[in-house]
Amino acid sequence: MKNHSAENMWGDFLSAHLEFAFEHTPKVYHFSDNEKDANHNVDLVLAGVKKAASHSLLGLQLQKKELPKRGDFTVLTDWNGKGKCIVRTTSVRMMPYFSITAEHAKLEGLGDGSLEAWKKEYWELFQRELAVFERKPNDSMIVVCEYFEKVF
Q1: Cβ-contact 88, 69 below 8 angstroms
Q2: Are residues 145 and 92 in contact, defined by beta-carbon separation less than 8 angstroms?
């Protein structure tokens, strides 16, 4: 971890939760690919609205990022890297984009919480993310659905 704000937050968490003292160093992550959405999404987590995140499997592979897994801790930051909270992954599911459910969309908390809002937001994000690699999203692409709880 090379983020002092995140390191301090993780240290404060461990001071209060010694049972996790031997956990691996958490990931440090901000949502989205722009400041407005990154800050808005972390605010939704802080408000208890956002309890899930979605990732393009192809995007993770092309960026050489690890898949999230149950039990992972993540320090969520704002766009500028300031630690805002710590979440723990409770489950991970993979499904085609066309199979995303209204229940998942609601847990994401984007827009009005509808499936339509989720699809619009994520289609645009996946387009931008994959364009860097000269790829395009499609309806059958695999989406990694990560569910988490705020723990600190």
Answers
A1: no
A2: yes
Write the pLDDT tens digit of every residue in 88-122. Answer: 999 999 999 999 999 999 999 999 999 999 999 99
Report how far residue 66's alpha carbon sits from residue 64's, in angstroms, rounded to the nearest whole number: 7
In whole angstroms, what is the distance from residue 103 CA to residue 126 CA?
Answer: 20
- The model's pTM is 0.93
Give residue 18's pLDDT.
95
Determine if residue 82 is left, alpha or beta; phi over 0 gives left, psi from -120 to 50 gives alpha, anything else beta: beta
Residue with token string 């990154």: 38
What the block records as the tokens of 5 is 């704000």
- pLDDT of 2 reads 85
Residue burial 78-106, b: 16+ Cβ < 10 Å; e: rest: bbeeebbbbbbbeebeeeebeebeeebbb
